[in-house]
Give the backbone structure.
Amino acid sequence: MLNDFTEKVNKITREITNKAHDTIDAAKLNSSINRAKQDIEEAYREIGKIYYENFALEENELFEEPVNRIRENELKVVFLQEQIHQLKGIKVCEVCEKELKQDMSFCPYCGNKMKEEPVEEAEQDAEEQDAEEELEVEDELKVKEEPGAFETETE
């Protein structure tokens, strides 16, 4: 009777161990599947980036909307970076792209002569850009509040 009990315990232990190994193997396989899917998505992004960098200037209705979105966001990034630079009181060298103090005439990293921007013009440009950015944000909010706005984005 003790032998039967020991055999049953050993059998159950083997079954549990086998199930645990199967579960671990399935988890490893799922992890491999997820890595492969991520790699596919990365390849799609790379293809899109290569297309954009090489063919975005060509007229193609199929890609018009996403290309325009990229261009708009690139401009927005530049605009927002300029605002950050103004807040920090810095400017960026056009040659080596290093951040410099506003009063520097030459870049200490590459020797490039920095452009002198009149302070009044810079402040006026910043105010105009702030106003434009606020209008863009308001327009985006209005579009999102309109009925059916989300339907067109998902279709």
Remarks:
- The two ends are 69 Å apart (CA to CA).
- Strands lie at 90-92, 99-101.
- Helices lie at 2-55, 61-88, 119-145, 149-154.
- The CA atoms of residues 77 and 83 lie 10 Å apart.
